Amino acid sequence: MSSNDAIEAARAASERAYAPYSNFRVGAAIVTGSGDIHVGCNVENASYGLSICAERNAVAKMVADSSGDREIRLVVVYSPNAAPCFPCGACRQVLREFGCREVVVLDESSEPRRYPFEEILPNSFGPEAL
User: Which domains, ranges and CATH numbers included, belong to the chain?
Assistant: First the structure.
């Protein structure tokens, strides 16, 4: 799968978001080492702390769908409500857990912005530190 496929998958996922309180819809698409794409969208809850971000939903889907291919080559994050839309701190740490190498955020006025993961979460720690 190409990053263009992942971009379209993230856009489509944002349309399925459950965001009745904020109206802030986010879609994420993870591309694994083998090229599989796993998508997620944000799901809000009346108890705001129980809401879950699109990126973590995509990670959960990746884990549920595959016991072997769990290395994240890249993640695409898209919101029609804010461009660019970066992963929050909690999502960055979860993405780090699975070796995310690149983050792509979309800005409707230009080309997708690509960031090496280390740039958005410098000096991070992961499973190898335990």
Answer: 3-129 (3.40.140.10)
Q: What pLDDT digit, counting tens, does each position of 54-87 carry? A: 999 999 999 999 778 899 999 999 999 988 999 9
Name the catalytic one among 55, 102, 108, 111.
55
Known active-site residue 111: no
| pTM for the predicted model, two decimal places | 0.93
SS (HEC) of the chain: CCHHHHHHHHHHHHHCCECCCCCCCCEEEEEECCCCEEEEECECCCCHHHCECHHHHHHHHHHHHCCCCCCEEEEEEECCCCCCCCCCHHHHHHHHHCCCCEEEECCCCCCCEEEEHHHHCCCCCCHHHC
